[in-house]
Structures are given as structure tokens and as C-alpha cells.
Amino acid sequence: MENFAELFQGIIHLRWEHFVMYAIGGLLIYLAIKKDYEPMLLLPIGFGAILVNIPLKTVWQFDPVLDETVTALIQRYPDMAVFFTEKLDYIIRDGQAFKIEPSILKIFFESGILTEIFPVLIFLAVGAMVDFSPLFQCPKMIFFGAAAQFGIFFTLLAALFFGFDLPTAASIGIIGAADGPTSIFVASKFAKDWLGPISVAAYSYMSLVPIIQPPVIRLLTTSTERKIRMDYEDIKISKTVKIMFPIVVTIVAGILAPISVPLVGFLMFGNLLREAGVVDRLSKAAQGELANLVTLLLGITIGSTMSYEKFLCKETLLIMGMGLVAFIFDTVGGVLFAKLLNLFSKEKVNPMVGAAGISAFPMSARVIQRMAQKEDPTNFILMQAVSANVAGQLGSIVAGAMVLALVPWLLNW
Amino acid sequence: MNQIGLGFQVMAYGLAGVFSCLIIFFFTIKALLFLFPDKPEAKNADANQ
Q1: How far apart are the first and last CA of chain A?
Q2: What single string gives the DSSP state of each residue in A337-394?
Q3: I need a labelling partner for A44 at 20 to 30 A (CA). Which of A70, A273, B32, B33 fits?
Q4: Distance of alpha carbon A246 from alpha carbon A270, whole angstroms
Q5: Tens of pLDDT along A332-367?
Q6: Angle at CA A232, nearest 5°, toward A228 and A233?
Q7: What are the backbone angles phi and psi of residue A294, rounded to the nearest 5°?
Q8: Which residues are registered as beta bridge partners of A331?
Q9: Is the CB of B14 inside 8 Å of chain A's CB atoms?
């Protein structure tokens, strides 16, 4: 009879929490399909969340297997048990050592996320897609790419206030980078257990930028300010500049913040492939096949970190809430910085452009243009907003690098 | 309290770092635009050949 019951282990191990996670996974899939919210990521994340919450989690790991050699070893040298349990996926039961073999999604997680391969490859693909020309047209917009990172640091403080430790708070703050790979990169170093909620928050709020930013901008600006026009001069950019830029930025960023090299370096490598003009096949492969394949694996792997034991807790709700705070305060930082500049500058900046300094490209720039035209149908500030938006992509990576460098330094790791 | 203090330090150093880096990028762009301006006449000459 006992053997017969083994046939129905799935039913025996089913819990109500599994159904909650199916609902959450289903919601993400619904948002992806019906609302078109970041479908490339939310759909695989949603399905990954369902997969990993099937009872027994065979998609994550297999049943533990008795390892007689290790059992003999730890019986002779009990101190070694810690090494096997912490480093080599063993569990100790009644003095016996059991090896937990990883299944497909755990292999993806350990080889793709923990080693940083997936986020870095996404940066390569993003680099091949980004055109920095708008930034060369209006270089001063780069400052908004810095100001709009304010939400990261504000949210870090908020997370500390709610009792998270500094590395976890930093990972939560990085949701405000509005840049999925940067969030994943930082969280995989500082807060592996919260990778699921942090990634879901980052991608969900990125897709909600058209809903989050407008009320915040309206709250902080007057109608007159939103009508400010900005001159735009179309300057021809030489190919040499476009080729030199990724090389020089990699060297400069690498020297200033060596920890940023995997992020900035691969972003700029992708951009160099794009601008070189002689490796179109590589550039197209990075923009197409590579981006699609890594996005697919990244999404389902992130989803697989959402097992109910880790996801269904009050901390997840806090992380989701603070992600929203991060996006709001990014917008606040950008808009207020633009208003500050207007106090000292003869050439006024439309403060809404400051809000485009977040990395959510090109949604944020489009939102700003739409708002500007709502106030004055003849006002056209799209190019300035795009410049700020591209600067935000640089700013978010630099902010990620700063956090990665500062937290271990301050904690004396 | 100590954690909050560390948080403020990350904020101060972090924002300063981001601004510093992007200021350097700003001058990098300015320098590149100055050193390598677009030369339409060269393109035209190539086209005529």
C-alpha cells in the first residue's frame, strides 16, 4: 500500500501555497499576453514560477541520494559536514550524507545567474541595440541620467528602515535602476534569496512607467513648466566618434570603477559591434538570436527562483512596494534636478525631460513627449527626452557598479 | 542605526560617484565631438570619385 501511495506523491505533497503561486504565475502570464507588459520576460517568469511550484520541484532538483563515501568521511571527520552541506549541495540526515542532484532549472540558475553569464550577455545584446547618437546631439542631458538614479539610494534607505540588511537593501534599491539585467546582476551578488521578487518588481514597474511617471511629474511641475520648449539642433556625428565612444567609456569606467567592467564593458562591446559597420552579422546576432535566447533562459530561470517557501512572505510584498517607491523617487530626482538647473540657467529645460533620465528605454521618453504634446500640441521635446533616456542607461549601470563597490567596502568584506 | 548610517554613506558616495562618472562621460563626448567632427566634404569627395 505504501508503494502504491508513492505513485501519487504529487498529490500527497500538494499544498495551498502551490495554488497561490500558480495564481501569481498566471497573473504574470496574463499581464504579458493581455496587457503586453514586458511579455518577453513576464511570460517566461510566470511559467517558471508555475514550474518550480509543482510538488517535489523535480524541475529544480531531484530527490536526495545516499552517498556512502561522503557518509563514511563525515562520520570520521564530523567537521567536514559543514563543507559538504554549504558548498556541495549535501544534506545530512541521521548521520548520513545525501547528495542533492540539481535538475535543469537549478543548473541554469547556477551556471547562468550565479556566474553572471545571463545578465552580462543581455548587456551585450542591449549594447548592440542602443544608439547613442541622441546623447551626442544633446550631451548635457547626460546629467539627468545621473539625477534620475536618486530613487535607488532613497529606496536603499527605506529598505534599511524596514529592517533589511545593507546588501539586501542595496539590491532592493537597484530596482530603481529601471534596468532588469543590472537588478539581476546586483541581486545575484548580494541577495540571491530575493532574486525572484526583485526581478519581477524591476520588470513589472519598467512596463508600468507610462502609469507611474505622469502623476508624479504633474505633481511636481506647473502647466507653464510643462510647456517649456527646448531648442534642438541636428548635428551630424562622425563615425569615428561613434566608434571611439564605447572604447573610451569602457576604459574610463573601468579605471574609475573596476567592478563595473563586466557591465559597462559588455554593453560597450555590443555597441562597438553595432557602430563598427564591418561586423553586421555579429551585431545582428547579438540583437536577435543571442538576445532572444538569453532572454528566454533568463526569464524562466528567474521564475524558477519563485518557490513558495521564498516568495510567499511579507518581505516579498515589501520588496514589491519599495520597487514602486524606487521608480517614483527616480522620477522625483530627475524632475527636481531639472528645476534646480533652471534656477541657474538662461536656457530653460523642460523639467519633464529630467524624468526621462531613468533607464526604461524608450518608454520614458515617449511618455514625456506625450505629456508635452498634451500641454502644447506643437511642442516637440522627444529628442531631448531620448537623450536623457539613453543617458539613464549609462547612469543605471554606473549606479549599479557604485553599489557593488561601496557595500563591500563599507562592510569591510 | 549603524545600518542607516551606512545607508546614508552609500547614498552620498553613490550619488557623487554616479555624477562624477557621468560628468567625465560628458567631457569625453565633448572631446570626441571636438576631435572628430563630421566632415561632409570628405564624404562628397569620396562620392565624386
Answers
A1: 55
A2: HHHHHHHH-SS---THHHHTTSS-TTHHHHHHHHHHHHH-TT---HHHHHHHHHHHHH
A3: A273
A4: 9
A5: 999 999 999 999 988 899 999 999 999 888 889 999
A6: 160
A7: -70, -40
A8: none
A9: yes
Residues 6+ apart with CB under 8 A from A193: A310
DSSP per-residue string spanning A107-145: HHIIIIITTSHHHHHHHHHHHHH---HHHHHSGGGHHHH
ipTM of predicted complex = 0.86
Torsional class of B28: left (φ above 0), alpha (ψ -120 to 50), beta (otherwise):
alpha
A–B interface: beta-carbon pairs under 8 A = 115
**A234 burial type by CB count under 10 A (0-12 exposed, 13-18 middle, 19+ buried):** exposed
Q: Do A142 and B18 touch (CB under 8 A)?
A: no
CA quadruple A221, A222, A224, A226: dihedral, nearest 10: 30
Select the residue of B3, B18, B40 nearest A166 (Cβ to Cβ).
Answer: B3
- pLDDT tens, A78-123? 888 888 888 888 888 888 899 988 899 999 998 998 888 999 999 9
Interface mutation target, options B11, B15, B21, B46, chain A, most CBs of A under 10 Å: B21
**Does the beta-carbon distance from B6 to A136 stay under 8 Å?**
no
Nearest to B6 among A256, A257, A410 (CB): A410
Query: Contacts for A16-19 with beta carbons within 8 Å, 24 or more apart?
Result: A17/A53, A17/A308, A17/A309, A17/A312, A18/A53, A18/A54, A18/A55, A18/A308
